[in-house]
Amino acid sequence: MATHNELGKKGEDLAVEFLQKNNYKILERNWRFKKAEVDIIAIKKDILAVIEVKTRSSNYFGNPQDFVNQKKIQLLVEAINEYVIYKDLDVEVRFDIVAIIQNKNISKIEHLEDAFLYF
């Protein structure tokens, strides 16, 4: 597996652990619809959290969350609309980013709730 794929997988595992510690129930990982892949779908209380995980080894080229672009947002919105219909859910939906900087054995995790409001 390529180094960036390993870093991404480790980041997703760290994000799941972080979310579970913060009382999120993980419903799906790597859920796909057409060209979209939703990293994590979780629920806390009555809020369905759609979570994009971005992991980098440093912030030299920018913060991890800076790498979520408009096209990715559109794909996630389309995918989660399908998910909610498919699962027949009646919940509030929120789009979050878990930004991780993983350098050697040190992890910095930042959970940005309602992250797409700022795009």
UniProtKB/TrEMBL annotation:
HAMAP family: UPF0102 (MF_00048). This is UPF0102 protein SAMN04488111_1294. It comes from Lutibacter flavus. Belongs to the UPF0102 family. GO terms for molecular function: endonuclease activity; nucleic acid binding. Keywords: Endonuclease, Hydrolase, Nuclease. InterPro entries: Restrct_endonuc-II-like, tRNA_endonuc-like_dom_sf, UPF0102_YraN-like.
